[in-house]
Amino acid sequence: MSLKKDLTIIFVSFYSKNIIEKPINQIDKSIPIIVVENSRDKNLKTKLEKKYSNVKVLIPEKNTGNGGGINYGLKSVNTKYVLYLDIDVNLTSSTIDVLYNHANKLDNFFILGPSVNNFEYKEEFYLKKNIFPNIHSMNFITGCALFFKKDVLDLVGFFDEKIFLYYEENDIYLRGLKKKFNIFLIDNAKIDHLGNQSTDIINSEDVEINRNWHLMWSTFYFHKKHYGLIKAYEKTIFKFFSAIIKLIFFSITFNKIKQKIYLARISGIINAMIGRDSWFRTNTKNIIDN
Predict the structure, then answer these.
(1) CA-CA distance, 221 to 191, in Å (whole number)?
(2) How far apart are CA 25 and CA 30, in angstroms?
(3) How far apart are CA 27 and CA 93, in angstroms?
(4) Measured CA distances, 238 to 232, 234, 245 (Å)
(5) How many C-beta atoms surround the C-beta of residue 224 within 10 A?
(6) To the nearest whole number, what is the mean pLDDT of the chain?
(7) What is the C-alpha separation between 174 and 206, in angstroms, rounded?
(8) Considering the entire predicted model, what is its pTM?
(9) Where are the beta strands (DSSP E) in the chain?
């Protein structure tokens, strides 16, 4: 067994040209890396592939979201294991080795997750604590770092590309658990996750509108897919009427940004309710500083 032969690492980049090299430089140069460049920056592809011999940059025809980007990278992977990392994850010197060593010892898993410093692992996330020493069986882990066993992932299926943003991890976790495969949290594999720092786009009104639209759409879609229509309405109907009230309030107080955000939430829920695809996209031409 050899780490450099058994593992491929995937990053999904979206307007991340100023920060993508930091996570790349955390990885041993013998381990192949795939960067899926969802903002379709061909100059970034040329730069990274010229500078890093272990990096291959893939440019999809269109941005299909984070889950879709991971899928695009997975189609090019032939190794036994795959590690997906958010760009704003910081590894320790031993994180990857610890995950790899556990992967070679544990049976019947499809995802291993490192322990994220300062992340609150709620009781309902655990199926069974300390199923092995410092290893826990989980129904939920944060999706910023996911170590997949590739042949099991092929059986479970890749990320649902109908989901553009939010709940894509919940969906794949649930599908794997239904097929009786395990998700393990590995306490001894440590990472930091900065959160919302995977892109050069900072504090953009358009990004916030995009997030709110997709959070509402995905909340309804996920619960309808796995738990039925009634549960989907239960999860979103209060949010729907709350958004209407807040839209009226912010219209009266002339807060245009808040108006757009709550209008986006209403639109996301309505589009999910009527069965429309998650079509909404950030207007990047207004927010990118070239």
Answers:
(1) 31
(2) 12
(3) 9
(4) 11, 8, 11
(5) 19
(6) 93
(7) 31
(8) 0.92
(9) 7-13, 33-37, 55-58, 81-85, 89-91, 109-116, 126-132, 135-138, 145-149, 182-193
